[in-house]
Design goal:
This protein has two domains: 2-35 and 158-235, Gyrase A, domain 2 (2-Layer Sandwich); 38-154, Beta Complex (RNA Polymerase Alpha Subunit, Chain A, domain 2). It has five helices and twelve strands. The chain has helices spanning 22-34, 55-63, 180-184, 211-215, 242-275, and strands at residues 2-8, 12-18, 38-49, 91-99, 105-108, 113-114, 127-131, 136-146, 157-170, 190-192, 198-200, 221-236. The longest helix is centred in the C-terminal third of the chain and has 34 residues, at 242-275. The protein is flat and about 80 Å long. The two termini are 40 Å apart.
């Protein structure tokens, strides 16, 4: 297995994963979506709400605000020493207390006050509600760690996908060097080399549509996916840096594989003992 970075930042990461099969690649993708923990508002106590929105709508909007997360500082409620009752190691409290005193106003995520400065909305400009004059909202909200398979609000990625690495083979003895496949490529992924033959200049642009292969009347070009090499694109919601999401997902997958191997060993031992 080999990993090559193409693009990396806190917001997104693009990399090539090679030497694995599609089952492994898809397992990594699903873990990034559903099993990498992050913070999200899980419980809301509405004390006063005279806005035009129902309490449930406000709670739902709050839950979908991405929160900056430090995985080293917090535990999952199920793994915390408090037993999930709520303590500084597994829970952060937010207060929202706003009133439109001088005319209509929009309530933004920046109006939330956190009990932990490190856990805050990734942006101060996420709208929550619009208040008319003298309308107000007063509430307490509790953020906890969770994973995506418990609810979409705990998904740390806004985009997580992969595609097969495209491979193009050109039969030089058949190619007429007409360059029609190059000019007609809808993504502009092909170019002409020094000898006049087409080649894949940008594998990121190629989406394996196969049009270059269809348009070639002499069948000199062949496009096929490499089912052992995958181009990943991961975009973070801002809760965690994108490289951290990939790292944690790989760690979770490794633990699952170790657990699976141990279960197999225990099963073999059990069968051997029963046979004896």
């Amino acid at each position: 297995m080999d990993v090559s970075l193409i693009e990396v930042s806190d917001e997104k990461v693009r990399f090539i994963l090679s030497g694995v099969n599609v089952a492994f690649a898809n397992a990594l993708r699903r873990i990034m979506i559903a099993e990498v923990p992050c913070m999200a508002i899980d419980e809301v106590v509405i004390l006063n709400n005279t806005s035009p929105l129902f309490d449930e709508i406000i709670a739902h909007r709050l839950s979908l605000i991405p929160l900056k997360t430090n995985l080293e500082r917090f535990n999952l409620p199920s793994e915390c020493s408090c037993g999930g009752a709520g303590c500084p190691k597994c829970q952060v409290t937010f207060i929202l207390d706003v009133k439109a005193e001088e005319g209509p106003r929009v309530v933004y995520s920046g109006d939330l006050t956190s009990s932990d400065p490190e856990v805050a909305p990734v942006s101060d400009k996420i709208p929550i509600a619009k208040l008319a004059t003298n309308q107000s909202i007063l509430l307490e909200a509790y953020a906890r760690l969770g994973i995506g398979k418990q609810g979409a609000k705990w998904q740390p990625v806004s985009a997580c996908a992969y595609k097969y690495m495209p491979r193009i083979t050109v039969k030089h003895d058949k190619c007429l060097k007409c360059n029609e496949c190059v000019t007609e490529c809808p993504r502009g992924a092909l170019a002409v080399d020094e000898d006049g033959f087409p080649y894949l200049k940008d594998y990121l642009d190629c989406n394996l549509c196969g049009y270059c292969q269809e348009i070639c009347e002499v069948e000199a070009i062949k496009l096929e996916p490499d089912d052992t090499t995958f181009i990943f694109y991961v975009e973070s919601t801002g809760a965690l840096p994108a490289p951290k999401i990939v790292q944690v997902a790989a760690e979770v997958l490794a633990k699952k594989l170790d657990s699976f191997v141990n279960e197999l060993k225990e099963g073999v031992k059990f069968e051997e003992n029963r046979a004896n």
